[in-house]
């Protein structure tokens, strides 16, 4: 189904990906309206910046209480807009958002407190610190795979750090945006603050371009593809607007022969099947040591064959494991990647094609797929699939595994499974990724104390953790006199206009003495 309404560029047609049914139409924001929203956010932020951390915590506590009290409703809305299952919505939308709220409530103030620094010997009479001040009006352009979590997460960090925020969600999940916006604005309002602090916009590329190129935006967070991320950087460069880019991944899981398969296999099934693998840190490559490879293949084939796809609207929604795909135009690309791998020696044991659901023929489904005997020269190892495709690769030893993992230009998340704790840590720390987990997957969404982001074409910058909050602040270097009667003097010999340059030079040279390393200061 097309989201474009013929002859009505001001409207977005919304569909349920799991059924193909219309959810209605949402009005697209115009470029003129975007500027008005930025102006209103700027006005509200001038007041909000003066609030205390306790006032900001009150807003987040109010929001978290609402989320927990209405989590089923939130999940149902997210499911209709993105086609996921209720379990996937609970884990990926509600649990992750509540974890971020709770971490920020508990730890946000500590992360943004002034950071006292050692002024050094020469400046021992000074106090030095870093002060974290809000940037002003920040923006977030977020992807469609988790409409609630991806939208609310940037809002939490922005408002707690004293900023206003303009959020542009993907037009593919525009239907749910008014609900999320109303939720945030009411939380602000009931706590006595201006709801204009948070602005939501929906629309197409013209609105996105206007937002990223606006001189009135002080920071940009973008979640999407490397190709679009480069366009965002180019647009932001017109005003040298700082950006944080999270551009997806080709996350690996390395499974050694001594791994606990009874724990490892269920975790990796969720890493591939959850949200139809439309996850930034979904498991897209599983490298299995040759000693257990055939056993692993057989067990995964049994499990993948049993996965059931469908909608929360099915007569028996309790028998649905895997939801729909948000984008209908990805199936040809996925089938081509699988065909390329098979032509180069891989075996497709399960699935491999778009799926026509008997009850929802207009739904957007892809068969849960198992592709084995995959090697690094196959296109599927270097391109993010964002679909329910389990890719299995064989490796011999640690170095072989590392070589195969690093054949991909992505570097977001990673996992290592081993019964040898030392080896698990050793290999995990050698991986060229922004995040890594030993004997687990995806905990970076829940462990909010850690920064979230990648390397390579997975992007740069971090959100979540103290680093994420501080990224939305100006890190101001601040000094002041420790005692009011001790100030920096300018000796007459180097006071302008300088009377004798050579004597002045000899004087300054002796400040640190003749020691070439400058380690031992001398008296002058």
Automatic annotation (TrEMBL):
GO terms for biological process: aldehyde metabolic process. One of its GO terms (molecular function) is oxidoreductase activity, acting on the aldehyde or oxo group of donors, NAD or NADP as acceptor. The keyword Oxidoreductase applies. Residues 10-476 form the Aldehyde dehydrogenase domain. This is Meiotic Sister-Chromatid recombination aldehyde dehydrogenase. The active site is at 246, 280. It comes from the Eukaryota. CDD domains: ALDH_F15-22 (cd07098). The keyword Oxidoreductase applies. Belongs to the aldehyde dehydrogenase family. InterPro entries: Ald_DH/histidinol_DH, Ald_DH_C, Ald_DH_N, Aldehyde_DH_dom, Aldehyde_DH_NAD(P). Keywords: Oxidoreductase. Pfam families: Aldedh. It comes from Coemansia interrupta. PANTHER family: ALDEHYDE DEHYDROGENASE-RELATED (PTHR11699).
